[in-house]
Design a protein that fits this description.
heterodimer, A: 499 residues, mainly alpha, two-stranded antiparallel sheet, 22 helices, 1% strand, B: 166 residues, 2 domains, 6 helices, 63% helix, 0% strand
């Protein structure tokens, strides 16, 4: 068991008092910021990134693992009590969770989320521990052509296949790719699209884009279209503990959801909504209490929430082993690695064994801390929700602008941030997904490097992408993902047309 | 047939962006390190991609509107009409921060942003907002400069804050 011994050495890294403290701090801050309405996991991670600039890489990344999990859990608290899903993966939780809260059962709803997240997160982390070394072995055989094909596959699945509109997803992706080429070309040293602005030569920082889209854009949108609406905050009354009946109905849902969520997270396709919807549908079908669905069925909270957490852990598999982020949050985490000059992928497992396995070990620890911390502290998180909205958004923006300003100590980064805020406002208003832009910004330059390397090795022969079996397979699947739905739609239209 | 001027304008904007990127790309070198793939290749792909999606968006906008797009009427999205004042106050807060940060320092600029945002969200309690903004910005400033060793400008408050900032 190579993985087991590596994991044990990882625990030796993660369980040092200093690193335990960073993990605890990460979970606490992640939950606190994640609870804030309108702040999803991606923004939480982006806003807290500047905190770690002076830490050593291991401590910083362990803290980030805690933030990642804390942000996920914090978001579900908000969803249940406020019925404003902060992120698309929470939409399903809102269906039953908010109904439970309205019926005075907020406590058990939050408890099944917390315990379900722990169960799903832990099982998924075990699966990650077992699978990661296998993927690393496979990935070591990949050359630039295979990597490029895999990245194209990830680009297309996150932008064109998932989401409401293929063309709007692709629009977002190409905007992200465009932002990704700004700055000095890594291979020739030539500046591109910098227009003589020194702040642009370093390239666009993922934190500025994420904070601009998610914080500034969101604040502009909510103020312009929702600030005069009043939301209702459900009270946390009665026991927070689950009854025996609740337990009986929750645990099968947690396990089924983990089995659905983890595989969806691991394939480099992203999208945490699909597993939550699948889990909800499964529970609705299998339940012995179908009459409760739509009125606050606990399975309908337990399943999707566990699926969300399992897929969030699954996303770490392609991120750590291949260096491919498949969600906006994962893209920002990759940015955190890059800040330390680390490039996730199979080579990182070999070169930085301690760091990688310390990080994986801290995922186990983070899950335990999340459970221990959150059940007793639910009352405190509820108080966070009661912060008036004007003060809340003002505070978020002060903190968010700090992250952008501290990059170069320059107001130009604040201007860039505002421009991205306007972009985020427009994308929200016209329903253009922002995830593909963030992923495109981070993954685009990596894909370009692999592409140019592949062609350099083949001495300019582009057929390398089609003659290498693995690369060709990924490109063929990618092409099929775009072409097949198109043909099916047009075929259906032709057949419906009367002769 | 539904035709939204905003959707047509945005589609044209994406198309124009693609053309603009293409124009800038022609000024980039095509000299690569190996095998002739230069720094202009990926920007050219991006430009082509933007032109294609721009044309596609325009086609959708002209033939019944963007597919499964957000409705133009805010009420059918469960929202109220666009509040230009709210949008303007937040913008003013951000611009004030940009103008002040190098001169007056992080704390004062942050408080200006804070007040702009609270006003945008409908607050009329100016004194409370100024006080809350100053306290929050000061707390963040001290935490980052003293505890995390991240430099932030002290500006006009340098005599009081001493050597805390840069």
């Amino acid at each position: 068991m190579e993985a087991l011994s590596a994991l044990i050495s990882g625990f030796a890294v993660a369980a040092t008092p200093g690193n335990l403290l960073w993990c605890l701090l990460g979970v606490t801050l992640g939950t606190f910021v994640g609870v804030l309405p309108g702040v999803g996991p991606a923004l939480t991670v982006a806003m807290l990134l500047p905190l770690t600039t002076k830490l050593d890489p291991t401590g910083a990344l362990i803290m980030f693992a805690g933030i990642y999990y804390g942000a996920m859990f914090g978001g579900s608290t908000t969803t249940i009590l406020l019925n404003t899903p902060g992120e698309s993966a929470s939409i399903v939780t809102a269906l039953e969770g908010n109904k439970m809260a309205k019926a005075g059962r907020a406590g058990p709803a939050l408890a099944t989320c917390a315990i379900g997240s722990f169960v799903a997160g832990t099982i998924a982390t075990v699966a990650l521990t077992l699978i990661a070394p296998l993927v690393v072995d496979l990935a070591l055989k990949f050359g630039p052509a295979e990597y490029f094909a895999l990245m194209v596959f990830a680009f297309i699945t996150v932008s064109a296949v998932l989401g409401a509109s293929t063309v709007r997803g692709l629009t977002s992706l190409f905007l992200g790719l465009l932002l990704g080429v700004v700055g000095i070309d890594s291979q020739t040293g030539q500046p591109r699209f910098a227009f003589g602005v020194p702040e642009l030569l370093d390239g666009i920082d993922v934190v500025v884009l994420a904070v601009g889209l998610f914080a500034v854009g969101e604040a502009l949108y909510v103020a312009a279209y929702q600030s005069r609406l009043t939301g209702s905050l459900e009270k946390l009354s009665g026991s927070i503990w689950m009854s025996i009946e609740d337990w009986k109905r929750s645990w099968p849902a947690w396990l089924r959801a983990t089995a659905i969520g983890f595989p969806f997270g691991t394939i480099p396709a992203g999208g945490s909504e699909i597993p939550t919807f699948l889990s909800y549908a499964t529970e609705k079908k299998l339940t012995e209490h179908p009459e409760e669905f739509g009125r606050g069925a606990i399975e309908g909270v337990a399943g999707p929430e566990a699926a969300n957490n399992a897929s969030a852990t699954g996303v770490l598999v392609p991120l750590l082993t291949l260096g491919i982020p498949t969600s906006a949050t994962a893209a920002i985490l990759l940015g955190a690695f890059q800040n330390y000059g680390l490039q996730p992928g199979p080579l990182l497992f070999q070169a930085q064994t301690e760091l990688v396995w310390g990080l994986i070990a801290s995922l186990y620890i983070g899950n335990v801390i999340l459970l221990v911390l959150n059940l007793p502290l639910i009352g405190l998180w509820v108080k966070v929700l009661a912060i008036p909205r004007d003060l809340l958004y003002a505070g978020i923006l002060v903190f968010a602008t700090l992250g952008a300003y501290s990059l170069h100590q320059s107001w130009v980064d604040l201007l860039t941030l505002y421009i991205f805020g306007l972009l985020g406002f427009g994308m929200r208003r016209w329903d253009i997904p922002v995830g593909p832009a963030v992923i495109g910004l981070i993954l685009g330059p990596l894909a370009e490097t692999q592409f140019r390397r592949a062609l350099a090795i083949s001495q300019g022969d582009a057929s390398v992408f089609f003659t290498q079996p693995i690369a060709a397979t990924f490109l063929a699947i990618t092409a099929a993902l775009i072409v097949v739905p198109f043909i099916v739609r047009h075929w259906g239209r032709l057949r419906r047309r009367p002769a | 047939m539904r035709r939204s001027p905003a959707e047509i304008a945005l589609s044209l904007g994406v198309l124009a962006l693609g053309v603009g990127v293409g124009a800038v790309t022609t000024t980039l070198s095509s000299e690569g390190v190996y095998a002739g793939i230069g720094p202009n290749f990926f920007p050219a792909v991006t430009a082509a991609g933007l032109v294609v999606v721009g044309a596609w968006l325009l086609y959708e906008a002209l033939s019944g509107g963007w597919r499964s797009g957000a409705p133009d009427d805010p009420r059918s999205r469960g929202e109220h009409a666009f509040q230009a004042g709210a949008f303007g106050w937040i913008t003013a807060g951000l611009l004030a921060q940009m103008a002040l940060i190098d001169l007056a320092g992080f704390v004062i600029a942050g408080a200006a942003l804070f007040v702009g945002v609270t006003r945008g969200f409908g607050s009329r309690r100016l004194a409370r907002d100024i006080a809350a903004g100053l306290v929050l910005a000061l707390a963040v400033f001290l935490f980052f400069t003293k505890f995390l060793n991240v430099g932030l400008p002290a500006g006009w408050l340098a005599p009081i804050l001493g050597g805390a900032g840069i």
